[in-house]
């Protein structure tokens, strides 16, 4: 394994959405905060969303990330 286990989101849906964000050129920042997994950042806009470690619904978390990707994918 080349990537530290702490760098992956424990929820598969959210992890897949974070991979899509990276593929679109958005910046994914892992934060070691207890409740916050990290951020997805659009550098040109200086806009970001928080990614939670333990969202109540992982499907919604992935959708939220995908919404951010749709909004910002053309900027990166
Ligand atoms: Zn943007």
UniProtKB/TrEMBL annotation:
Name listed for the protein in its UniProt record: Uncharacterized protein
Lineage: Bacteria, Bacillati, Actinomycetota, Actinomycetes, Kitasatosporales
